[in-house]
Design brief:
The complex is a heterodimer of chains A (about 300) and B (about 220).
Chain A lengths: L1 H4 L5 H30 L2 E2 L5 E2 L14 H36 L4 H15 L3 H11 L4 H27 L2 H9 L4 H31 L11 H12 L4 H32 L4 H6 L8 H14 L2
Antiparallel strand pairs in A: 1-2
Helix pairs in contact in A: 3-6, 3-8, 3-9, 5-6, 6-8, 7-8, 8-10, 9-10
Chain B lengths: L1 H5 L1 H33 L4 H15 L3 H14 L6 H27 L2 H9 L4 H36 L6 H11 L4 H33 L1
The chains are: A mainly alpha (about 300), B mainly alpha (about 220).
Chain lengths: ~300, ~220
């Protein structure tokens, strides 16, 4: 885009832009070094006591304790556990919501739409707090419930968009060969919509993992909470160190998952989704087509 | 229901702070986001790299951690202008990469042929941008940008967990006093949030419809 906007740069302009690039790189690097040094400098607090700098070994010696790492690992595992359970429920709810949202029956479609609008417009944190208070579940299930309802609503909306974006012929063909509306939805439209929306769904699951940190507020013993409880235990001297370590763990988890999401998105994208991938999928039972066909016909005739 | 009516001033106070957070950090995020987006599409490689790293790091950090940093670590580092300002800084920083991404996708969404056509009829760089590319980019950017602000509205609730008295804080306070009417309080607070998010959503849908006609 940008290359079309101006004439191709000549040798002078290239040189100038290269110099500018190097200078700004140096400026950014200098800024970062200054920040690191400023954080590392010893500080004098209001009452005149001098605190050691943030990179001082006395602020980092707790990390040689194996129990500290074990606690952090437990916190990370708790975070992952909540994310995993919530992801499963969110996917199931998402499928249900999408079916309700595109239902032909008014009595299903309109209530689902209202519920979805309500859920999507509300903060997850508020939902967590109230599930905790109203149903007095533990903080784990409050977090799981709120996360799965909220992300289920968003996944459902994505799936609905996927179903709506399919050519009409898909549904018409399904109905024409005698499948019931529900069967058409389940076996013809839904698999295609799901495959098409997979990148969005996975991106939403990354958001879900990030949002598990909200359970910190309702007192769930997740990664950030394990960091703060250890800060309370070892003293505020370590608060910055623990924060930095927790941040690093979160970043690693999220970046890995985002990267995975990108890989999957690319892989499903290159298969040129839609009808062709469906036909490529292996049949459930590798039977002789002559045996399958009469059975299918028989099933059809058995239905009213 | 009477718990809601009794505490209406509390909710309104919270709502006022929610709106204040939304407006202030929304403006801040818009400004910061424009700068980041400009860096990301700039021809200077080092700026591009810096903006990319910033976007990746901030987007993959949970909001709770950002606000935790602002509410606990910054005061510990002897920077404490009050929790409202701290939460505002946190929300601004957290939202800015999302704004930047929305802006960038809008500019990239304008078809290259448009710029090529403008260039080939002899428009200069400034004319191409101001008469051809930007008018289309701005229209395309508005719906995703509104979605970012809807998310920001909901995200302000996290500030309530870090000593800022906004709607979520009000909800916590009132439910502490009136544990018997949690459901009514929930619906009341949710209604305040929905008031903002749904009206923003309606604006987005409207703009989207207009853009669809223009394209």
């Amino acid at each position: 885009m940008t290359s079309v906007l101006y004439d191709a740069p000549g040798p002078k302009a290239i040189l100038r832009s290269r110099i500018f690039s190097v200078v700004t790189a140096l400026l950014i690097a200098a800024g970062l070094v200054w920040l690191i040094l400023a954080l590392g400098a010893p500080k004098t607090s209001a009452n005149g006591a001098v605190q050691p700098g943030l990179w001082d070994p006395t602020r980092w010696d707790v990390f040689s304790d194996r129990e500290v790492w074990r606690t952090l690992g437990r916190g990370a595992l708790n975070t992952l556990r909540m994310a995993g359970v919530a992801a499963v429920f969110a996917l199931l709810l998402g499928v249900l919501f999408s079916f309700g949202r595109v239902s032909d029956t008014k009595w299903i479609r309109i209530p689902t739409t209202v519920v979805l609008e309500f859920v999507r417009g509300m903060p997850v944190l508020l939902m967590m707090l109230f599930i905790l208070l109203v149903f007095s579940t533990g903080s784990f299930w409050a977090g799981v419930a709120a996360l799965s309802v909220y992300n289920g609503a968003i996944i459902g909306e994505a799936l609905r968009a996927g179903i709506k974006s399919l050519p009409r012929g898909q549904r018409e063909a399904g109905l024409a060969i005698g499948l019931t509306p529900v069967a058409t939805r389940l076996r013809i439209e839904f698999p295609q919509a799901f495959r098409q929306m997979l990148p969005i769904i996975i991106a939403q699951l990354v958001v879900l993992l990030k949002d598990t940190s909200l359970a910190f507020v309702v007192g769930y013993e997740e990664l950030l909470r394990s960091g703060t409880s250890m800060t309370n235990f070892f003293g505020s001297r370590y608060s910055f160190s623990f924060f930095l370590v927790v941040l690093a763990i979160y970043l690693t988890m999220n970046l890995l998952l985002s990267w995975l999401a990108r890989v999957i998105a690319r892989r499903t994208g290159s298969k040129s989704g839609g009808v062709t991938t469906e036909t490529k999928a292996p049949p459930e039972k590798p039977l002789d087509p002559e045996l399958v066909y009469p059975a299918a016909l028989g099933n059809q005739m058995g239905k009213p | 229901m009477d718990a809601v009516i009794e505490n209406l001033p509390v909710f309104l106070e919270g709502f006022k702070n929610t709106l204040g957070l939304l407006l202030l950090s929304g403006t801040g995020a818009l400004v910061l986001g424009i700068i980041i987006a400009a860096m990301r599409i700039s021809p200077v490689a080092s700026l591009r790299g810096f903006a990319t790293v910033y976007t990746e790091i901030v987007r993959n950090t949970p909001l709770t951690l950002v606000l935790f940093f602002c509410a606990f670590i910054l005061p510990y580092l002897q920077f404490s202008p009050g929790y409202f300002v701290l939460a505002m800084i946190g929300l601004t920083v957290y939202t800015s990469p999302f704004v930047a991404e929305a802006l960038r996708s809008g500019v990239n969404g304008v078809h290259v042929g448009q710029a090529e056509a403008a260039r080939s009829v002899g428009l200069t760089f400034t004319q191409t941008l101001s008469f051809v590319v930007m008018p289309q980019a701005v229209r395309m950017v508005v719906p995703p940008l509104i979605n970012v602000f809807i998310a920001l509205t909901k995200n302000t609730s996290v500030a309530g967990a870090f000593f800022v008295f906004e709607l979520f804080g009000a909800a916590r306070k009132v439910t502490n006093d009136r544990g018997d009417q949690v459901l009514a309080i929930l619906l009341a607070v949710a209604a305040f949030y929905l008031l903002v998010t749904i009206s923003l959503g309606l604006i987005a849908a409207r703009v989207e419809k207009k853009v669809a006609v223009l394209r």
